[in-house]
C-alpha cells in the first residue's frame, strides 16, 4: 500500500514496518524550485527546472500505456534523468548557504529522494498526485460552504458520497442517475451475490439490467 503526497512529519509513523510506503509528489518539488526560479531565476534553478521538465515530457509520451510498458520506459529513459537530477541537486546544494531559498528547495528533494523515486519501480504509480488533487478540487473549494460536518459520522458519510461521485466521473457515469438507480435497486432487495454489477464501472454497461423479481 502506498501513500502519495507531500511529506509531513506527522505521517512518519504510518510508514514504519513497510506496510505503507511513501510515494512523494514530484510536482511539489517542481513547485518549490519554480517558486524560487520565478522570483530569482539563476542558472541553478533553470537547470533543475529543465531536468524535471524532461522527466514530465517522457511521462506525457507514455501516459495511457500498460503499467509494464510504462515501467520499461521509465527504467530505460527516465531513470538516467532522475539520477542526473539528484547529482545536480546534491552537488549544487553543497555550495550554497543552507539559508538560501534555492538550497531549501533542493534539500526538500534530496532528503526524500527514495520517496520521489518510487514511481520508477512501479508502472502503476504516477510521478505526482496531481490527478488526485484535481479530483478533490471541487470539494476543497466547496468546503467553505460546509466548514463543519456536524459529527464524525457525518464526515464519514460525506467522504463516501464524494468518493462515489468522483468514481462516477472517472467512469463517465452520471453520478446523480447512478446513485438514484442503485438506491432503488438496493431497496428492492438486490442480491448480495451481484453487488459487483452495481459498481460504477459495471453499471455504465448495465443500465438496462432488470430489478430482481419480488419474492
TrEMBL record:
Recorded superkingdom: Bacteria
InterPro entries in alphabetical order: IS66_C, Transposase-related, Transposase_IS66_central
Sections of the chain in a coiled coil: none
Transposase IS66 C-terminal domain sequence ranges: 163-201
Pfam name, any one: DDE_Tnp_IS66
Signal sequence residues: none
Domain Transposase IS66 central positions: 9-156
Protein name in UniProt: Transposase
Record organism: Mesorhizobium shonense
UniProt lineage: Bacteria, Pseudomonadati, Pseudomonadota, Alphaproteobacteria, Hyphomicrobiales
